[in-house]
Amino acid sequence: MKIATYNVNGVNGRLNVLLKWLEETTPDIVCLQELKAPQDRFPIKAINDAGYNAIWHGQKQWNGVAILARHMEIEEITRTLPGDDEDIQSRYIEALINGIVIACLYLPNGNPAPGPKLEYKLKWFDRLADRAETLLSLKVPVIIVGDYNVMPTELDVYKPEKWVNDALFLPEVRKAFAAIVSQGWTDAIRTLYPDEKIYTFWDYFRKAYERDAGLRIDHFLLSPQLAKKLLSGGVDRHVREWEKTSDHAPVWIEIDTK
Asked: For this structure, is 147 an active site residue?
């Protein structure tokens, strides 16, 4: 089974790119982030016509997450991250597909830091850690996937010395990510490529893609039940070259479901 994550940076504005990529690669499950569309503006007909069922949590102008499944049923579990009833940002959705719990997230950016946005990010991380621990306790196959807005190590960022004061690379943010992994999760892409430079995001400015000045901020965390079934994975970085494309590239893994 092929599972992918893609921060589309506007699902309607990038719809042609998304559909082209879906047709080219035919992933079985896709998690999308940054829809930038209200609930009633999600392009469900186009997604259905491409062969995918979908659930989504939209929000006007910002945020928004979705889970797509190719010729499979999606059983929604929740569309909010537990722990803060007053949080209205659409950043989390969770579903059961073919016996696997898929948690799709768009973690807050946190900039400018320090400040309230960083505080919100760290509190969101705390809530995610609680949810991750709960999901692990179920002892079922789980994937927590999406745009985490964190580079876990210096290997995950071009010129790390330039990011020391950025909320994506602050020690407390990296520590929060590492704390979740240490619960018993496997960082799938880094496991497959332990010593290689792997980026998933390139800024639109200063020819970042052409210079390969990128970041690895899109991650798959696998529960033990799936970590041992991980077969392969990678980044469809050529999609970043397409016209009117996102500043992220799709990231994917394959797991053995036999």
From this structure: yes
Annotated binding site: 7, 34, 147, 149, 247-248
Which of the residues 57, 166, 187, 248 is marked catalytic?
Answer: 248
Residue 61 scores a pLDDT above 90: no
For every residue of 84-111, DSSP letters joined together read -TT-----EEEEEETTEEEEEEE-----
Q: Whats the size of the chain, residue-wise? A: 258
Kindly report, residue by residue over 153-194, the tens digit of the pLDDT: 999 999 999 999 999 999 999 999 999 999 999 999 999 999
- 57 assigned to active site: no
What does the domain layout of the chain look like in residue ranges?
2-255
CATH architecture, range 2-255: 4-Layer Sandwich (3.60)
Enumerate the known binding-site residues for Mg(2+).
7, 34, 147, 149, 247-248
248 belongs to the catalytic site: yes
Prediction pTM value = 0.98
List the catalytic residue out of 28, 147, 166, 218.
Answer: 147
Measured between alpha carbons, how far is 178 from 15 in angstroms, rounded to an integer? 34
